[in-house]
Amino acid sequence: MRAAIPAGVLVVVIVLGVEGCAAPVSRPTKPTPPAVRGSVQTGRASWYGQAHHGRMTASGERFDMNALTAAHPTLPFGTRLRVVNLDNDRSVDVRVNDRGPLVPGRIIDLSYAAARALDAIGAGIIPVRLTVLGGTAAAPADRSNARGAPAQP
Question: Does residue 147 carry a pLDDT above 50?
Answer without folding.
Answer: no
